[in-house]
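Here we describe the complex-level prediction in full. Unlike the single-chain runs in Section 2.1, the two entities below were treated as one system.
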Amino acid sequence: MHFVAPQVIVKAVDGVSFSIRSRETFGLVGESGSGKTVTCRSILRLIHPPGEIVAGSIRYQNRELQNRELLTMPGSDFDRIRGREISMIFQDPMTALNPVLRIGNQILETLSKDDKASRQERTERAIQLMKMVGIPAPERRLREFPHQFSGGMRQRVMIAIALSRGPHLLLADEPTTAIDVTIQDQILKLLMRLQRELGMSMLFVTHDLGIVAQTCDTVAVMYAGRIVEQAATMTLFKAPHHPYTLGLIASVPSARSAGERLQPIPGSPPNLAHVPEGCRFHPRCAYASDECRQGEFPLREISPEHLSACIKDVR
Amino acid sequence: MSGKALDSYGDAVLRVQSVTKTFELPLGLVPAILRRKPEVVTAVDDVSLHVSKGEILGIVGESGCGKTTLLRCIARLYDPDSGQILFDGKDILKMRSGEMRSERRRIQMIFQDPYSSLNPRFRVGRMLDEVLSVHNVCPPNQRGERVAQLLEMVGMHADAAHRLPSQFSGGQRQRIGIARALAMEPTLLLADEPVSALDVSVQAQVINLLMDLQSQLSLTMIFVSHDLRVVRHISHRIVVMYLGKIMEMGTTSLIFSNPRHPYTKVLLAAAPQADPTLRTEVAAIQGDPPSPIHIPPGCRFHPRCPSASQSCQAEIPILKEVESGHFVACSMAEASMGN
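The structure predicted for the assembly as a whole is:
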């Protein structure tokens, strides 16, 4: 997935591969510009010009659909995937809802896509969905507009819309970033409960290691458009391998660090139009050697199910 | 009440006493014609606190709790409706503009958004030179040297003076914002969510910088943030606010090891821990915070409080000292103390 800017090609995501298992919550964590959102949006073909997916494939399967390739699928076929098989909730619930449509109509709009049910039945389904995501008095609130909802309630509406057609995979792109901590806690717990109850898979994009630790089964850490480490959440926090992951974990203030100096990663992430040669992290890496400045380093398995792109063993 | 206990801190650089700040909401056309009274939001409601010399006071709370409004009142960017703000014993709210201008030099602010708080058309050197000249902090022939010194202090190269803000990353811009505040050689630094807009790896750098500068220059600082992890890391003492009032106040170790107010407990439980072995399944609290226009009677936290009783609906709890240096505004926490 590359963006073609007037003068330069920005490789927002460069050679990223991963797979999400059934009923799994897969976390993509990284800082701004690491390519996590672009990766997530690519799955639903939500990349707009000048952005372009130049290579790769995205395969999807469930019981009925065997191993379909999403990127090359004809648009009419893809309409049956987007929203029904795979749906998405976005970062900002303030702008993702249409301000001039009643909440009920926005939920009914997605339900009308494939339902042969009557309007009455669909309204009942909408009420049921709103109850499921914990919106009180759904019969009344159905007739209200987005501005009458708080940020947390709007995000619940977004979740109701995303779940309305019973998707098997939910993409959540920083769903709690714009929300206060107590409401964030509610939304995270709601998503985890729904995922379990509905047996969905979830791709969770976030910059917050705390959220990853609380919600994800498997995590991929992204840096400058690449996955640098991937492991089960427990393993990643207990035995991080890549120096970038180590640095990220050490950067988060914790009970242990109170009052002491943090151990930040020096410098800042590279401009993606001019990524460093060799390992992309080497200019900021304390362990970098000459070897790191040459050649590209693919992910390698350092222990079962634990992948790292670092050629050293710095632990 | 707490006033007496607060007075016992003799070395307070800043003393905020019963400060209240309200805002009138804009009227729609029809209510304006009908001459209805506008609705009023009490953003900060009868808040008293002090900051000792060389101390970092953290203020935490969710959006709408009044933390930023309080900070802006202290910088006198807002004029409070009532109360006193004593800076080195003098009430800055009573100062005339000339006097305020010289005091303002000693109270400097760092803003949240490093993208909008720097003039995009001023080179960094000119920006710093301007503050130095307006307040006549150093003689014109030494300003260039001072600019270089300031940039070095915040960990930047002196060459940065010749560049525009757009040529810097968010973290570097925040460093420039800090240099601008330090140019005045302030006594009191007000930091309004200074690391919220930054990525974690860069956030840690700026936190370290602020802590280093604070100890090198023996600055007094108020650090406002919604992020408990950051506030815990940096602050000596913490104030927890909810809908315009202080719920709990105490040293950082007391607030975290022995939180007494139910709201503080909820805040602590809701913050996602970066440790997968500490997972919880149930949300720390249900419901949304009420609208600040219609604040619940009695304790404003009672509709969401897990341990609220009948009396909480009627009486507004007063901030009381429950142990040395630990203040709580909750009648239930007090009751449990007696047992």
